[in-house]
Batch of 2 targets.
Target 1
Amino acid sequence: MATMSSTMGSSELLSIHANDKVVSDVSTTSNGSATPLGSRKPTRSRYRHVAAAHSRPRTSCLSHDSEHAPSFLGFRNLMVIVLVVMNLRLVVENFMKYGVLICIRCHDYRKQDLILGAVLYALVPCHLFVAYIIELAAAHQAKGAIGRAKRNDVKPQDSAQVAKSFKSTWRTIAWAHAINATLSLAVTSVVVYGFIHHPLIGTVSEVHAIIVWLKICSYAFTNRDLRHALLKPDSASSLPDLYSACPYPHNITLGNLSYFWWAPTLVYQPVYPRTSSIRWLFVAKRVAECLSLSVFIWFASAQYAAPLLHNSLFKIASLDLPSILERLMKLSTISLITWLAGFFAIFQSALNALAEIMMFGDREFYTDWWNSPSVGAYWRTWNKPVYHFMRRHIYSPLVAKGWSSHAASAWVFVFSGLLHELLVGVPTHNILGVAFIGMVVQIPLIFVTLPLEKMEGISGKVLGNCIFWVSFCLVGQPLAALLYFFAWHAKYGSVSKN
Amino acid sequence: MATMSSTMGSSELLSIHANDKVVSDVSTTSNGSATPLGSRKPTRSRYRHVAAAHSRPRTSCLSHDSEHAPSFLGFRNLMVIVLVVMNLRLVVENFMKYGVLICIRCHDYRKQDLILGAVLYALVPCHLFVAYIIELAAAHQAKGAIGRAKRNDVKPQDSAQVAKSFKSTWRTIAWAHAINATLSLAVTSVVVYGFIHHPLIGTVSEVHAIIVWLKICSYAFTNRDLRHALLKPDSASSLPDLYSACPYPHNITLGNLSYFWWAPTLVYQPVYPRTSSIRWLFVAKRVAECLSLSVFIWFASAQYAAPLLHNSLFKIASLDLPSILERLMKLSTISLITWLAGFFAIFQSALNALAEIMMFGDREFYTDWWNSPSVGAYWRTWNKPVYHFMRRHIYSPLVAKGWSSHAASAWVFVFSGLLHELLVGVPTHNILGVAFIGMVVQIPLIFVTLPLEKMEGISGKVLGNCIFWVSFCLVGQPLAALLYFFAWHAKYGSVSKN
């Protein structure tokens, strides 16, 4: 509307004015006869109305023939402001529509859920100690075998024989570990699926069981390889230097296992890089971050996500596609914010606090995944503990067995999909397979975006990054959340009731 | 929800693996006794499950103790995507709520409005030619005075006497110009306010009249100073070199005036920097840009802004403050988009096309105002034609008269506020004073943000830029639009009718 406006703020103007005098010497094309008009010294004219505002040819800075493109940093600031304002508006709209939805007393959970959750939380780690006892027996037998070998003074080539005979023993140990580990996961899953109604308590129990299960697997696999390395000391294979501080049978102690139990990692190592002291202020700050982010997430879910999800139920039930799309896009912002807050709370705040308390030196729980130029780069960087586990205990051994790296990667995603389905499907009492499919779909996405990551120049990386964000925060998260939420309400009656 | 995931995409993994072997030589604190375990050559281990994932102390990249802050470029991409998605959602929501609101036949304007607009469009430039006749008479008299002076062979000190006597003549000329210029503006304003109902036709007529009025003022002031410079050739004052191609009385021709009439500037110069040819393809592209942006603006206004403004009417009438705030925030996005499109259409596309046709060399109609570190910088950069006028014909002469630069700037904004009020208040038939106040409020804003502009480092500039954007696109534009829209409907009955 106001297409016309004006001008200038301060004494800076005068210097601009003086500059114009200087540049007015630049000659220009003209069409009149030239007669000099008085002296032309570069002094300030008394006649202010004659200054040459247009003294030389110039281009508009947005034109293609402009010498250098202008900076667009101001528009970045504008984007941040517009995002804040748009979301602030939605906050106001939400408040006018629903009022305050936060209600601490309204949370209802059955007492049975809490008790079962607490029992599971106490029982699951016991399996770690069963794994310790299995390893203790295995180490005892290995030490015996080495003692016998030393006494009989066998030649190196016979040590291969020893290792072979030991392989049959490994089968027994492997079975023991498998039964122990699977039991911990299976019991938890059955209890959560059958007896814990509250989805949050169920999810926490299931996450805990999966973490312990992965730890047991890592403990068993690592100790097997350490044992084999001890039995074949002549092999070309080497162990990391780090481990020399605590060679194989010495690491099978309760203290060593307890450290692994609490250490912020899923990968067992006899020795970890350690820090020399605990900065309690650091811990306090991280805990405070984690708590405030948790409150924020709870608030955002209850006030913004919940009414949105409830609104969507009937749209999904009636398969009204434009409405579902609209709900999905509205949900994507809140699910993205919640996810980012959750990521920071867990991977930055909680894991750093835990690492500080455990004096665990390696804090690289993630790297800058938000810049991922491809979907594959995202999965390699956002969750380092799980990435380390998958790489060391699944991908790397499969490649060593002769699998192609692509096949091994694909299998990692299939395995990860199974764990995701367990994690989401069991506590929501709906094994839909959506979480599994969501993970498996990553495989083609990774191969599609792989060339973008390796492309020269910035545009390929930006495109890859955009594909990653869209697939991640538009299609992935909110769609899965919507589907499981719908399935939950279809099963427990909200949809059919109304 | 999905707090756990996994890993890796391609053969790149193997190289990461190899790297870990190398870095595992970094020594770490440990607590066990050290016994070497076989050879430790950096070859690939057969035992894949023992690789040291955690081989050295590392920090999380978002921690303060991290060596270098990570790049956040990915979040910029995310912001763009979220903005697009959020607005796409609003598009879907708008469509579901209102359907298609675009209707070409529904536009009703009175025939009288069109006829009056056309008459005004034809008559207003005539005043430019009246100004030419006034200047022709003045130049004739000046040439006579110089001729007489030459014949009488007066000494230089007497030429001051000549100029003084001429000053009384200037008073007559000034009165003639003032009556002529004011008449053009006053007649247009009265006709628009009293007889043109359609606000768009009224606005176009008013803009045209103000542009011609400013051109007449510039023509009169510039020629007065050129004439004085001719009468006092011995003064220390100098004229820009550029003007030597067409010295004073030679520039008072119909051709010279006609060029100024159509040139994309409000500042009269006897000579302008020129280009040597017209690139018609360039013109065609700019015209196409301008047309498509106009269609876009019309579409955006009719489909998105109009229902929003209509929804707000009753909220304003009932003074429901949270609702007004919510409407204002929703309106700010669409008004910002419309404004940006309008800016580009006028200052980049239309003015560049006109300049190309007129072979006008100086295309700097704006500079990168979007990066403005202060409100003052914005007003100096976004509208160069008006800025040049205000600087040359108001600010600079006032400073030469001894005004402080702050007082001169303030007066410029008061003057600009009057023009704005004329521009908005007259076509909407509501002289509310909001446009005037909007401009005058810029004065304190400029002084508040001036220190930010001069601050060392980037944070002051970013803060200044954010203050500029918020004041500009959140408070300024949409609030003014809302108020004039409300006043219009209060006067013409939409509010009282319902």
Target 2
Amino acid sequence: MSRPVPVALLGLGGVGRAILSQLLSPPLASRFQLVLIANSRQSLSLPLPNSVPLTPSNYLPILEQHGAPLDVPSIVSVLSTHPDAPGIFIDSTGADTIPAMYPQILSMGVHIVTPNKKGFSGSSELYEAINASAYPNTTAVVLGESTVGAGLPILSTLKDLVATGDEIQRIEGVFSGTLSYIFNEFSKVEGGDVKFSDVVKVAKDKGYTEPDPRDDLSGTDVARKLTILSRLIPSTPLLPEGYASIPTQSLVPPVLADAQSKEEYLDRLTQGDQYFDDLRSEARKEGMVVRYVGVVDVEGGKVEAKLAKYPFDHPFATALKGSDNIISFHTKRYSPRPLIIQGAGAGADVTAMGCTSDLIKIHERLTTRRA
Amino acid sequence: MSRPVPVALLGLGGVGRAILSQLLSPPLASRFQLVLIANSRQSLSLPLPNSVPLTPSNYLPILEQHGAPLDVPSIVSVLSTHPDAPGIFIDSTGADTIPAMYPQILSMGVHIVTPNKKGFSGSSELYEAINASAYPNTTAVVLGESTVGAGLPILSTLKDLVATGDEIQRIEGVFSGTLSYIFNEFSKVEGGDVKFSDVVKVAKDKGYTEPDPRDDLSGTDVARKLTILSRLIPSTPLLPEGYASIPTQSLVPPVLADAQSKEEYLDRLTQGDQYFDDLRSEARKEGMVVRYVGVVDVEGGKVEAKLAKYPFDHPFATALKGSDNIISFHTKRYSPRPLIIQGAGAGADVTAMGCTSDLIKIHERLTTRRA
């Protein structure tokens, strides 16, 4: 068995905590050596001096008591100079600032795994700088499987299709767990007259939405995922400003565009109900349901996030349940019927799994020798 | 860019031809160097002496005219002693004899990629010998993504789930393109009274079945796939005889069990229609359709291939179309709703893609360096 690969984990929110927990558990614990954990303020070098083992339940008080102020360049330096270097830098923050450092981190030979969408869905300048500093242009690998569909094998499948010479014609899917839940409840094949505002409130109460539901309803998160997918396909539009270059339909109803706070927005949400009621009944007359989808139309040269109608027997109407994602790849090989992947596309455990499966892929790449 | 990895391709049937075609085309051609192709009788070393480039349209006459008698050990020796060794041995045969040599091939450091199910679904003795000779126990990698679901990411997803510490509870799916087509046509949500024998004949005429349709209807192919899946899950039954250890329902109707030839079988197929008619109407009374499925029930410790009934709103009833495979993974993380993968699970191009994506994974592993 090879020596464990050194790993530093930055970001200890819900996903970071789940990554930590998977890293400390049996199947992964022997392959990786956690050399450092950090939140936005403090970092903790490992192993602990008193040889107490780190666990998912003790790390927080220990970090708070013994942590040093966060210093990202010195973390990268630890990973690049470790006896078993280069190590892997896990960016589990939601920050813009860390992805801006990816080119520099990679150019020190350190690998990166991240669920953070910012680096891959922002300006094409940053995206190209990241790629220029990464495999196959350098020895450092950067992977972000969980940036789209969490633990679902979406990006790896798209990469395989492209790399083996298939031609992507169209990718179409429900990419937001929150918007999946909202429209699966609001617009059902079997009918129903629940109010849009009531569904959003239930989704918020269940913790399915961001603290400010407008962050989900703006469609920005979907546009970021579409950017990441598009950029993996040769011949798609350049998207110089990343997600901001994608036409994105906002679900904040026009009548509420002037709401000043999330409180005011939620209070006044019923004012938007007529707008969504009309959409739903118009669709129903045509035998359709309403879904919020993302589309990468390679042949048409269009990428967009929008409300769309689907017939009652379409998988987006019948097969989609709860807050699942569903993504269909229409390609030259997968034609006329697409390749479809469906399942939970959000949640700490499955998002962490997307990251730890990336860690394993890097581990395998580092421990397979040519001779 | 690293030097191309040497590759030998054994087996030039439909899938082998498609692998050859993908290997000779742009995205892959620069990563791999094809050093030899062979069918069951002859092999041809490459590049050709007259420096004519090999193409998907000229290889067959050239092989027939200039091929040397097939000698597998010398092929392996070429791959292990090549200046860019070790190379990759692609077994695209359907033979039992080649998989029996995997342990020996791997122990010479040569990697293996294969769509051939025989090595992974036969005796546990051979399976364990293969594993003992492969990564992570040695430096040689063996991958067979396309042995289940062709180009669909079934095995890679299962491996990721297991390796990241998820607990598999149940895998359930329609694993045979042929049986998918037959039952999607025979037992529909919207009803219909087509005869089983007529559907089988159409499937045969369309080329969806093996030359002898009983090879599909026996369920053996499904049992082989279930064996391959089960063996990747810790705590599943041992299956000492591989697929032969799995309870497998045959669809050759009892009344036809004594048919001596495929001709006699097809002639007399209508004698079995009553049997299937009864199954269908019994299911229909309960609001169900009939499907031929494979189940790996980890919690119950059971693996079986059988006819089963599914409610009209189940994905196996509504989402399944044509000859698609659909596989659902019920796990601790993907619960209560499973992770579902669906799409063409057979066909030369997508099966070849499963192989060439394995080739790329090995290429990445060989060209990522620790420093």
